[in-house]
Structure prediction request, 365 residues.
Amino acid sequence: MGVDVLVGGAHDDELNEIARLFEGWDRVFSRFRRESELNRVNADSAPVLVVSKLFASAVRDALGAASATRGLVDPTLGLAIEAAGYDCDFSLLADDEERPPGPTARRRWRALRLSGRLLSRPAGVRLDLNGVAKALAVDASLDLISGAGFVTAGGDVAARGGAVVGLPHGGSLCLLRGGVATSGTTHRHWRRGGAWQHHLLDPRTGRPAESCWDEVTVAAATCLEADVAAKAAFLLSREGPSWLDERGLPGRFVSGEDVLENRAWCEVLDGLEKAAA
Amino acid sequence: MTGSGSRIEAARRRAAGAKRTAVVASAAVFLALALLARESHHGQVSGATSTGGSGSSSTSQSTDDGFGFDSGSVAPSTAAPDVHSSVS
Prediction:
């Protein structure tokens, strides 16, 4: 998946299983492997396809995430991310001041249908499941560890039994159970046609989102939930902190040198600090 | 003539049987599509369970797809980090 994976608390056999899991999931979900199932599905013109159980499961979670965020986290933005210029592994992505971004693609997640392993989608829709696949892989990897442990991939963390997680711009928290994820534009960005591009697309425009935040970190019951919520809160810009509060999710927002913690973050951590005192 | 008549009659019977089979098959396909359309809503799913999504009892909000948000369990810490959460 083009990310470093760090595992704690796993036995050797569990570690090997986790390595196989990431390799296997990359073969299914990678946009940059020509033979991946994702690319085969996107290239297939048949209106209805039988997909693998794993692929169907990820689509199911992606549709759940889309529904829970009212389409902010949308699995049908494959064309839009390519139009923004993200068409190869990020390590190979070069600035291109001459070539403008391509035409945007409309969000179409409501047009997807999944019944068991039968997937139907409108003609021309290209899926991008990387918004959920990495976090799902982290959660699935943690399930392979029998005792306390943690798994982190590309900055997404899942833990059971306690892991100290360092936060962007300093500070840390102890993740007793669940996941922590950070979304933002400080790492993956590039220039195309004289403008900065990044991978967090606003499905309302099909273009890289404009947000008042550089990075948003969220803690949740799973890495997937944390990742989806962090993306949504980033895209919602100023409404992000209250959106997380409405869902009882602790969130930490970074803008330049400023750090803002939402009410849920303050309540959870302050409450535990008082209990420990 | 009798033999020819029998063959025509037999052909008619086969044709009628084929029609009945076609009607039954069409009805079955129509019924299957109607059931699929009823169970599989736009942008939603029907069928198997999810690998991800909420895994705790205190889900604050969830969708019809079973996806929900739960706050997990965190505590303050001043110890050196085991891992870092960062933008990927």
In short: Residues 1-41 of chain B form one domain. Chain B has one helix and five strands. The two ends of chain B are 86 Å apart (CA to CA).
